[in-house]
Amino acid sequence: MYLLGFDVVKHYLAKSWSLPVLTIGIISFAIAHFLFTALKRTLEYRADTLHGREHGCELPPELPKRWPLGVDRIKELWDSNADGRLLAFLCSIARDYEPRNMLCQHLLIGPRAFHVLHPKNVEALLSTNFKDYGFGVRPSVFAPLLGNGIFTQEGAAWKHSRELLRKQFVRAQYQDNRCFHEHVGNLINCLSDGHVDLQPLFFNLTLDVATDLLFGRSVYSLRADIDQAADNREFAESFNVAQEGLAKRFRLAPFHFIYNPSAFRKACRNVHMFVERYIREQGFMDKATGDDDKAPESENATQQDSASWFIRQVAQESATETDLRDQLLNVLLAGRDTTACCLSWTLRLLVRHPAVMERLRHEVQTVMGDLTSPTREQIRAMPFLASVVKESLRLYPPVPLNNREAVRTTILPTGGGPDGTRPIMVRKGEMVVFSQYVNSRRKNIFGQDADNFRPERWETGELNDVGWGYFPFIGGPRQCLGEDFALMEVSYTIVRLLQTFRTIELPVGEKVEPVGAERQVLTLVLSSADGCKVAVKR
Ligand code: HEM
């Protein structure tokens, strides 16, 4: 075909009159293509408008703005982000829409974006009309580090990855807590009586645990000052740099390609080489694993069997070494920072609420007595601990802000029109933003004390019908696969810290601000700008 086309072009060029004819032909084709596309878009737009009218759709109000194109709003957004208070700013806007639970805004550049607050709209977005939405530019933002894995895929490829990984996570739920024991021990060994910032240590902990689970080999970043191997250290550092790069690209969204410095590329390369080398050394792609593999729950399984079991199972269904590498890195990214942030915010809240800390200590002591190393059953017998973590995830969801892009024109069930009850049409290519952080502070969802840390609200039954008002792990088909694992890791760590240290309290002179008033760092996840400083005593 190609050669045939080439011959035709050559034939025309050979004739003296052919060049102008060719030029006119190309210009005519371009104009025809433009007109055809414009006509197609106009017809689609009209058909969508009609569809919206038939369903009684109306737009929600626009975000009030003083300057053309809402430049004032964009500036406010920028300033509040630089000040570490972007989410507080979004909450202040949402307050104006409280009774309707819906707002709409136009971005300076790019398509219209709807910010949904109403639980019915969140449900439509993440569950009922799941198929109408995609990730937009997310896959290409994350591609340099994550390639092609569950976190970046959509459609059939995502379904395959989801099924593959889901099986491993279901099995992982039967595991005992051996996977946490060693690393939480290393964390505790880093702490001596006195003041410490727990936040960076929690990031090390969750990296060590996640690499152990996924690769069958921890990078032991908590042993960096003792005996961490050089290649592990290089991996841990490179992974941090690569992840910071992804966060920067994420903020640039459609212009993410602008950010691709050599340090970022080098960090991604190092991470890839580390994982590939390990896959090759262990022969994960060569060994056909089968039923005789000792599953982690089997009685004869050793710690090593449990540790490399995950990677062997994923290897079995990965076509190439790169596929396997990408899947592992996707899960590592999904599970590492999120869990560290949850731990950090929970401890920050606990030291600022001594009565809650005291009640939690009492529960841990009652269930555990003199036993250390809590089992899954023991952790499940601590309902107050579960409420504390749930409340911390409500006020500080590690993924506080998220979005989807409509892949076809679709409808949100409520929030449009003057009384805020009409459905809203979302046209193909428009964005929908959703935020657990903002929703968590809605008084018409969580009551008058929505801003306060009160774990008891999860015990009284007052939130039995909260439904899609609470979604820190989102929900629907793309619900977090690591939820159970993360909750176990967080709970295990808190129990061990409380058992080891007689007191864990706010250091003298540390600020006590109202919940949500502190400075925050928003990357892909939400962390505290001032860390998690505590005073510990054995
Ligand atoms: C407190 C800790 C965690 C929180 C709050 C959390 C939250 C989330 C959220 C909000 C998503 C959806 C992202 C989106 O689609 O835009 C997600 C997806 C995911 N999470 Fe988690 N996560 C946590 C821990 C973990 C852990 C420990 C793992 C694994 C070890 C993990 C594995 C995954 C995976 C594989 C997905 C992708 C699911 C899919 O797209 O089908 N997460 N998580």
Helix content: 40-55%
**General shape:** globular
The Cα radius of gyration reads 26 Å
Major sheet attributes: 5 strands, mixed
Number of helices: 19
Residue stretches low in confidence (pLDDT < 50, at least 5 long) are: 1-6
Number of strands: 12
| Percentage of residues in DSSP E strands | 5-15%
Mean model confidence by pLDDT: 88
For the termini, the CA-CA separation is 77 Å
Small ligands present = protoporphyrin IX containing FE
Strands of the largest sheet, in order across it? Answer: 1-2-8-5-3
Class by alpha and beta content: alpha+beta
Cofactor: heme
Organism: Lasiosphaeria hispida
Protein name: Cytochrome P450
Family: Belongs to the cytochrome P450 family.
Topology, pairings included?
Elements (H helix, E strand, L loop, with lengths): L1 H13 L3 H37 L16 H12 L3 H10 L6 E5 L5 E5 L2 H10 L4 E2 L3 H9 L8 H18 L5 H12 L4 E4 H18 L14 H23 L9 H21 L20 H14 L4 H32 L1 H15 L7 H5 L2 H13 L6 E5 L3 E7 L5 E5 L4 E4 L1 H5 L2 H4 L36 H18 L2 E3 L14 E3 L3 E3 L4 E5 L1
Parallel strand pairs: 2-8
Antiparallel strand pairs: 1-2, 3-5, 4-12, 5-8, 6-7, 9-12, 10-11
Helix pairs in contact: 3-4, 6-10, 8-9, 9-12, 9-13, 10-11, 11-13, 13-16, 13-19
The site of protoporphyrin IX containing FE has 23 residues, from helix 7, helix 13 and helix 19.
